[in-house]
Amino acid sequence: MNLHSPLRTPLHLLAGAALFAVIGVAGGPLSPAHAQEEVATPIALGTAIPMADTKLKNVDGKELAIADVKGKKGTLVVFTCNHCPWAKAWETRIVDLGNKFSTKGVGVIAINANDPEAYPEDDFAGTQERAKQRGMKYPYVIDETSDVARAFGASRTPEAFVFDAGGKLVYHGAIDDNSREPDKVSARYLNDALLAVSSGKKVAVAETKAMGCSIKYRKKA
Amino acid sequence: MLRSRATLLAAAALALGAGAGCGRSGESARTASSQAVPAASVVDTPQVTPASSQAVLAAVKAPGAQVVLLNVWATWCVPCREEFPDLMRVGKEYRDRGLRVVLLSADFGETVSDVPGFLAQHGVDFPSYLRGSDEDDQAFVNGIDPRWSGAMPATWVFDGSGQVRAFWEGRADHARFEQAVLAVLDSTPQATEARP
Fold it and tell me: Closest residue of B to A25, CA-based?
């Protein structure tokens, strides 16, 4: 809680260029002069895994690409982070799903694409610590340029992308329908998508939404 | 003065936490999201009301404004905090021309108690909102706007008839907020008339 106090993180106010995604404008002559454009448009269903061969630094210090963890039955790529209250609220459920389905032919990888200049908890050490603390039995990697997140069009944490055995996107969205109260979840979107993929079935609900923390992309080099 | 203000803010935080804490269930949650919870009976602490997406939109569309800025934020959201002073500046500069600012905090759990203090610190002297607990995440996001991904900060600009004129996700600056407000005011015939 302390880390989120508005009074205790003045350095964050110095963080660089604005992430500014204009999603839609109806009417009004708004010039793009102030929009330092970083539009996060998520990849469409059916899309192949973006930047699958790009090496990313795992918490064990080794370089790893999404292609390296791809499962025979499918692949779960989840953009998450360490600081975000929503990511934290869903973390136990994400880890349970990741650990469970990584033994069922589904490749699982968690990606932290946040700029640690904005969120110090999201640095490499913080990510290592979180993976250990939560008992993740799958890779938790750092997207050191945020380019993988950009390529996915991932805008928030947590945000899940599930690919089928052929590497095509079959689910994109939330973990389930209640971030804040696990005992009140009535729709387990990600679980259901992973169950479908691991048994070669069609995913019934392929796109969902939830509130999340904006991914603070690293500045372009 | 400082001590007394801090005490009042602490009281406000407690009042809000008691009335609007997340993780509540059953009847108490429904009550929390349907009733106003005065943060404290002092003028310098803003009222924060747990609200559904429809209640927030009703506040946006209530008569009397020429242009409305709806901003979704949270105390722990860095880009939200970065843009907040600019948002408040524009809010004050254009208040007399009919701008209404509607603030919706997405804080939940332990950070809910930080909300009144943050608002007071930024000079918020009008009622604002906290996401209630009656709707699931997707219903809330789509209830506000189906185009919204759920990421924050998110800002909408409505005209006086309640039509969305602009929407964006991510941090804005003073010029961006001002330009969006002026785009509506300058296209609204009565915008330059004096308001009662």
Answer: B166
Q: Is the pLDDT higher at A76 or at A12? A: A76
Residue B32 CA to residue B25 CA, distance in Å, equals 10
Tens digits of residue pLDDT in A150-209: 999 999 999 999 999 999 999 999 999 998 889 999 999 999 999 999 999 999 999 999
CA B71, distance to chain mean position in Å, is 6
- Domain borders along chain A are 41-214
Check: CB of residue B171 under 8 Å from CB of residue B82: yes
| CA dist list (Å): A153 to A25, A49, A147, B156, B160 | 19, 12, 9, 21, 33
Q: Name the residue type at position A7.
A: L
Please indicate whether residue A56 or residue A220 has the higher confidence score (pLDDT). Answer: A56
For chains A and B, count residue pairs whose Cβ atoms are closer than 8 Å.
170
Q: What is the pLDDT of residue A40?
A: 75
Residues B66, B184 contacting (CB under 8 angstroms) = yes
Q: Is B191 on the interface with A (CB under 8 A)?
A: no
A28, A35, A174 ranked by CB distance to B137: nearest: A174
Contacts of residue B58, defined as CB under 8 A and 6 or more positions apart, other chains included, come to: none
Listed in sequence order, the DSSP H helices in chain A are: 66-69, 85-101, 124-134, 147-152, 189-198
Class assignment of domain A41-214? alpha beta
- Give the residue carrying structure tokens 């689910």: A171
Domain ranges of chain B: 2-190
We find that the CATH architecture of domain B2-190 is 3-Layer(aba) Sandwich (3.40)
